[in-house]
Amino acid sequence: MDFIRxxxxxxxxxxxxxxxRLYKIKLITGGKRKKVxxxxxxxxxxxxxxxxxxxxxxxxxxxxxxxxxxxxxxxEVSSPGMVTLKEERDFAFFxxxxxxxxxxxxxxxxxxxxxxxxxxxxxxxxQGDISIEKSRIVKAxxxxxx
Length: 146
Fold this sequence. Notes:
The chain is α+β, with helices and mostly antiparallel strands. It has two domains: 3-78, GMP Synthetase, Chain A, domain 3; 88-142, SH3 type barrels (Roll), CATH 2.30.30. Helix content is 27%, strand content 40%. A five-stranded antiparallel beta sheet has the order 7-6-5-4-8. A three-stranded mixed beta sheet has the order 1-2-3. The longest helix has 18 residues, at 49-66. The radius of gyration is 18 Å and the shape is elongated.
């Protein structure tokens, strides 16, 4: 039994119905009880606290009904927040979102247009579309668009 895969399969219909996307599920097994962290984002970007609270109740009830974890556990459902973008899947997942890209010689702000074959296309207000090799990126984080 693969807990993360099983939980993902169970919650996918709910997420699709509610206009949500699953970013990541983490199972932390250290300590007195297990901790399940579920990170959700809106299909159009961002989620509200009310949406996360409703998802927490739904996922918790589903986990109990399906008896996914026999031990005591803590469930936390939250937004990925101001995520640090590291892996290719991060850039691809957050396509359309506003971010800050730090290169060795400058910092760029813009929306992720695409990420493919190690190349990020960032749309900025000043320069339009910019092609950036992932190897040039020192740091990348989601940011707040003003």
